[in-house]
Amino acid sequence: MSQYPHPHYRTPKQAAEHRAYMIRTILWLAAIPPLIFVVMAFGYSDQAPAFLRDLTVQLDTAFGRPVWSIIGPAAK
Predict the structure, then answer these.
(1) Is the dihedral of CA 61, 65, 68, 74 positive or negative?
(2) Which of 28, 40, 42 is nearest to 66 (CA)?
(3) Given CA atoms 47, 40, 67, 57 in this order, what sign does their dihedral have?
(4) Contact in structure between 56 and 48 (CB atoms under 8 Å)
(5) Which of 23, 48, 52, 63 lies 20 to 30 Å from 5 when distance is taken between CA atoms?
(6) Three-state SS at 67
(7) Domain extents for the chain?
(8) Nearest partner of 59 among 41, 34, 32, judged by Cα
(9) Nearby residues of 63 by Cβ (< 8 Å), 6 or more positions away
(10) d(Cα 52, Cα 30) in Å, to the nearest integer?
């Protein structure tokens, strides 16, 4: 006698909750990179506190300077 796993059926309420959870998760994951970029771009400004400027430079250098390459002056 073989054992088959019992199928798991979701109620409409469970399906709606799962969809809402997935939408929230996807929206947060889509929002995080632009937010990080904005904070790091602000970190390069003169208005940023010294600790944020230092942290921004260290993080940007660790990742190969992607933020500075976008906001920095163009080479002539």
Answers:
(1) positive
(2) 40
(3) positive
(4) yes
(5) 23
(6) helix
(7) 39-70
(8) 41
(9) none
(10) 24
Write down the number of H helices and E strands in the chain. Answer: 3, 0
For residue 47, give the DSSP letter: T
Quick one: pLDDT at residue 54?
A: 92
Dist CA 73 CA 8 (whole Å): 57
Residue 52: per-residue pLDDT: 92
Tokens of 47: 């208005």
11-66 residue pLDDT tens: 999 999 999 999 999 999 999 989 988 988 899 899 999 999 999 989 888 888 88
Q: Which of 54, 30, 27 is nearest to 40 (CA)?
A: 54
- pLDDT for 76 equals 66
